[in-house]
């Protein structure tokens, strides 16, 4: 990760102007912010998480999700999501776990650094994060099914069939599966964007 902080970016950005500085504010010297500002059109909304706390499935390791949205175990704590659709019910932490699995499958070192920081910020321990790479058995069957779905959609999307959907339907309702699919698809897009442009790792990770 330290080496990633020094890697050269691949796409040049125009020279910084006074107009750019005004538009970007404190991020005026941030390469990624400038790249987005010049080349990626602004969009509304987010597919990443639910802007609420407590009561939704997939909140903390060890909790049990249910198809009606019930959640047992400890509360979720802080939710850091921006611009979330109120119809989303899957938690920030849960979908960050999926993002980790997607990033590991794609070997996106930049995104792994960010997801580690975000999972730690939600209260997960180093051992719980490491288990996402090794022993899914420490998580409930509901999350294991979601992890397998995320990896399949990332690594072998051509194998996505009714049986794969049925495996997650045991624990999640259709809207949650749609939310999961959209989130994982977005994660894959971000992996390719970050690695393809060679964005340096953030200094704080």
Kindly name the structural category: mainly alpha
CA-CA gap between termini? 8 Å
In round numbers, the mean pLDDT is: 79
Low-confidence stretches: 44-80
Note the overall shape: elongated
Spatial extent as radius of gyration: 18 Å
Number of helices: 8
Strand residue content: under 5%
Q: Please summarize the sheet with the most strands.
A: none
Strand element count: 0
Fraction of residues in helix: 40-55%
Structure summarized in a few sentences:
The chain contains 8 helices and no strands. The chain has helices at residues 18-24, 31-39, 92-106, 109-121, 126-131, 141-155, 162-169, 174-197.
Relevant terms:
mainly alpha; 205 residues; 8 helices
Descriptive account of the structure:
The structure is a single chain. By secondary structure, the protein is an all-alpha fold. The chain contains 8 helices and no strands. The chain has helices spanning 18-24, 31-39, 92-106, 109-121, 126-131, 141-155, 162-169, 174-197. Helix 3 (92-106) packs across helix 8 (174-197). The protein is elongated, with a radius of gyration of 18 Å. It starts with 17 loop residues before the first helix and ends in an 8-residue tail after the last helix. The relative contact order is 0.17. Mean pLDDT is 79; it is low at 44-80.
């Amino acid at each position: 990760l330290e080496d990633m902080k020094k890697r050269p970016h691949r796409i040049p950005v125009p020279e910084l102007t006074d107009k750019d500085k005004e538009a970007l504010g404190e991020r005026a010297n941030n390469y990624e912010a400038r790249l987005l500002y010049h080349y990626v059109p602004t969009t509304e909304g987010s597919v990443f998480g639910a802007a609420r706390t407590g009561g939704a499935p997939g909140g903390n390791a060890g909790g049990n999700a249910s198809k009606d949205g019930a959640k047992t175990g400890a509360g979720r704590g802080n939710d850091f999501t921006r611009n979330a659709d109120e119809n989303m019910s899957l938690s920030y932490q849960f979908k960050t776990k999926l993002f980790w699995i997607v990033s590991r499958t794609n070997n996106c070192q930049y995104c792994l650094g960010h997801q580690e920081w975000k999972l730690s910020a939600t209260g997960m321990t180093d051992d719980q994060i490491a288990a996402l790479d090794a022993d899914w058995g420490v998580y409930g069957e509901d999350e294991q099914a979601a992890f397998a779905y995320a990896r399949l959609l990332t690594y072998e999307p051509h194998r996505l069939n009714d049986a794969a959907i049925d495996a997650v339907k045991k624990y999640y309702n259709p809207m949650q599966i749609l939310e999961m699919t959209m989130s994982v698809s977005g994660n894959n897009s971000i992996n390719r964007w970050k690695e393809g442009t060679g964005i340096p790792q953030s200094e704080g990770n």
